[in-house]
Amino acid sequence: MNKAKDKNRVTNYKRIAGLLSDLIRIESVSGLEGNIAKRLLFLFNDIGADAYIDTTGNLIATIGHGPYNIVLDAHMDTVLTGQHELWQHNPFEGYAADNFVYGRGATDMKGALAAIFFAFENLLNKKEEWEDELTIIFIGAVLEEPAEGVGLKYALEENEITPNLVIITEPSSLKLIDRQRGRAEFKIWTKGVSAHGAYPDKGSNAVYKMADIIKKIEALNKALRERPAGLKGSVAVTNISSRAVSKNGIPEYCEITIDRRLDVDETQNDVFNEIENISGSAKVELTNFSLTSYTGKQIKGENYFPSWKEENAGIKGVFDKCYEQLFGSPPAWDSWKFGTDGSYSKGIAGIPTIGFGPGNPDEAHITNEKINIADVYEASMFYSLLPGTLLKTSVLETAVLSK
Is 185 a catalytic residue? Predict the structure, then answer.
């Protein structure tokens, strides 16, 4: 019996490595996800899911036809690779060795794409057990890296999907996630008076004015990090520029960009007022994004992505049971410090949201990114077990009756 299980696991590992390498070979930087979307479209339709690509470019794959809707969310886009010569292996080779697969997006988050695919395959093999009560929807979202939640928002609205539960499959080291920090981006402008560099006292240096603000931002970050509890927000200057009439002129204008990470109890107004208070007479503004999906759709919005916290005891209880069934011990719930599509699903839309995904978050965006194949396998098993676990609880009945 054990030999049979071991043989089955080896077979699954080989299939996972093969698919994951295939996905890594398909470059899918934000805004260029078309080829990977087409590949996933073929794969999911081939196993019997109802799959299509919407006008925004999101990949939607559905199985089952029940009244309770579960969304498995994973973004298809990746960040850039940086300098190729610093990688031990070609970042788009999908090199596999010693139970790891290497390459851009291995952890963030093509490992999750592979895990969801194999979970769908497992679920379709026993669909008679759940398909009349559940609808399971995979959303392969676009443009998550530059604007978390945007692809998911358009997928839900455009396709009239109303989830009862969203599972964010970002890397979590196979830990359950019930909260996440938010993110806001601000710009601050200071104005000075131009003068010749030989006579600086005749002008007013916008950079010097900004220097005082930067010191206050540094002090604010220290105070945020020393908070005794919570996820502890942070703030950092991420860009600075100035303008003068010539290279030997006193700058009449200075601008900085600020990355502010929000604890679960902080709001957009809280952090805006905080930044405005330390900026004095300088102008403060929440920045905006303007993106174009690979289908040509224009997407605009504010660079504010709220934090979130899931407190639904019934939903969390289902995940507790599923986790213990798979791993043999109760879970220790954790949090994400980075942004995910949960900023939309829970932070804005208020949909019950839990995080769980393969891979170590520390591997995301780094040179020589890799993922353990065992993580992908365990994640696929978890996603496969969850529907059956849900059906054994009262959560399903309560949710359907409340509609």
Answer: no
